[in-house]
Amino acid sequence: MTGLLLTGQILLAQDKTINPGAIWPDSDGNHIQAHGGGIIKIKGTYFWYGEERRKGLDSNFRYVSCYSSTDLINWKFRNDVVKMSDPENLGKGWILERPKVFFNAETKKYVMYFHLDDVTYQYARVGIAISDRADGNFRFVKSLRPLGRPSRDIGQFIDDDGSAFLIFEDRELGFHIAQLSADYMNVEKEMCLIKMPLEGGALVHFEGLYYVIGSQLSGWAPNPNKYATSKTLTGPWTAFNDIAPPGSNTYQSQSTMMLKVVGTNATAVIFMADQWNPSHQSDSRYLWMPLEIGKGKLWLPKPQPWTIDLKEGAVKLVSKKQ
Ligand code: DGJ
């Protein structure tokens, strides 16, 4: 759904709704390439980082894109903030997935974590890159195994007090939530280990409860994502329940993040997920929907176009006929 905005002499097409599962054009009209992504907000601007998978990339490199927005609906491509050649002799088909960026208010550095792997997914480490600017370029610093454990899918979480956490999947043990060091350059402290085989980890803190989401381990194929809650990050966590009708396989999507938008009238929590298309990754889509959440329950409504007023925090489902 598009409106026209007159700015000086330029007529800009402005989208008014988020359309889950559809091609999502950026402000240049290109489908957004920010898969397995994460979002941070810096002074009223949202930055969305993700796997850059557009057609025609140089296969020797891995790329991370950065987009910016002030309404979460219209996104401007800023830069490929990472264009990296194989940093640790991982060989052909090496992997950079699920980049997540944290801004450190003390050091003023943007610190990116990403899943770094070889083609067989056995290296299982996180890579860390830094930048002085939100839109790059990021410089590779090192890789590590967080808390000494193998790590594949990662997720990010910033609590209401600004503390930063990495969620990472450890195939042998489960799903870790761990706090970053003060400069964000290390994974320092285990908050909890959830002994469930879950990936695509995401967390949100809403009305005094933590809600964690993960998908099951089925490669690129979607499955019923699940959630649990706890009063503290250290647990105990409730049993896991489905976030959507299990037969829908999370409406063909896999979680990557939950974003909380605190407005003057309401607080929205947005489920952000990927609809992967493994044989044509550049055509992978996004399923973003406001969640029904509260009092220990979380539910992903059936995907449909919606809009959000960031100031008020109000979301509105938009009927397709409009
Ligand atoms: C599932 C993960 O969530 C994705 O990020 C990717 O690593 C695929 N597995 C690869 O099969």
UniProtKB/TrEMBL annotation:
Similarity section: Belongs to the glycosyl hydrolase 43 family.
Instruction: Give the residue range of the signal peptide.
Output: none
Q: Which residues form a coiled coil?
A: none
UniProt keyword Hydrolase, yes or no? yes
Q: Give one Pfam family.
A: Glyco_hydro_43
Q: Which UniProt keywords apply?
A: Glycosidase, Hydrolase
The keyword Hydrolase is assigned to this record: yes
* Record-linked InterPro entries: Glyco_hydro_43, Glyco_hydro_beta-prop_sf
This one is known as Glycosyl hydrolases family 43
